[in-house]
Design brief:
The structure is a single chain. The chain is of the alpha/beta class. Helix 2 runs parallel beside helix 10 and helix 8 runs parallel beside helix 10. The structure holds zinc ion (ZN).
């Protein structure tokens, strides 16, 4: 089994999808109050999350739709200034599986161009809006020089995809269990969960994945996790992970680089 660096028995990543207004725009919403929930993610939540990460001295990965980067350029700057990774996450949070081949490639290139310009560095990671891929997505990522995908739900540890266009992407798997949206996102259709029991569930999942030497890949949305009651839960979660022995807290870019190097070494 491929090991983790510094004698760690497992890895943990804190990732944030900064969907802002596009989370709602992608659902056909243009009503101002609903959209303003997305704005909250950028103007209120993001600075507090960056503070929390700075105090904890941990790196994170932020996936930003191109539309959000264009409309909130200071957000991308503040993420980069905090030393965090920026990855691609579509343009207006469109469903990749609904796009034709030409549209999909065009959006991917626009997103690469926008984030490279704003972040001052070319993104190497891709997370699809709502974790939905088309049958072409992985080959497109390989063609355009991405290092990793963080979309699949089949494993607890990273792995290499089969070669495409002469390149093997690293996959860093995710799960709805480790996502804040299923528990806290309010669409008017079901009740939100109280933070305490959700935190307990995340801690138990983290302990289990750690025992299995995997990577706990948390996926949060600033507009959802950034409410004060849930920020308290995030702080407790980060504290718990930091104080768990032999767990490597890293960005997905670092995890991908480490996995590729050790996989190559056999
Ligand atoms: Zn998203």
């Amino acid at each position: 089994m491929t090991g983790w660096p510094h004698g760690a028995r497992a890895a943990c990543a804190f990732t944030f999808d900064l969907d802002a207004e596009t989370l709602w725009m992608a659902r056909g919403v243009n009503e101002p109050v609903t959209l303003s929930q997305g704005t909250f993610g950028v103007v209120e939540a993001l600075p507090r999350i960056l503070d929390l990460l700075r105090q904890a001295e941990i790196p994170a990965s932020f996936f930003v739709p191109a539309w959000v980067a264009e409309h909130h350029p200071d957000a991308v700057k503040s993420i980069v200034a905090g030393g965090h990774e920026v990855g691609c996450h579509g343009d207006v949070h469109e469903k990749v599986s609904d796009l034709d081949a030409a549209q999909e490639e065009k959006i991917l290139l626009r997103s690469l161009e926008t984030l490279t310009r704003q972040a001052g560095r070319r993104p190497i990671g891709y997370r699809a809006p709502a974790w939905q891929l088309s049958p072409r997505t992985l080959a497109l990522l390989a063609r355009h020089g991405f290092e990793y995908s963080s979309n699949m739900m089949d494993r607890l540890r990273p792995y290499l995809h089969p070669a495409s266009e002469g390149r093997r992407l690293v996959e860093i798997p995710v799960s709805w269990v480790l996502d804040d949206a299923p528990f806290f996102m309010f669409t008017g259709q079901r009740a939100m969960q109280p933070p305490g029991p959700v935190l307990q569930g995340w801690l138990t999942e983290f302990e289990g994945i750690t025992e299995m030497h995997g990577v706990t890949n948390f996926t949060f949305h600033p507009q959802i996790i950034g409410r004060p009651s849930r920020l308290a839960c995030l702080r407790e979660l980060i504290d718990h992970v930091r104080h768990t022995p032999r767990v490597w807290i890293a960005s997905l870019a670092e995890i991908s680089a480490h996995y590729r190097a050790t996989a190559a070494a056999g």
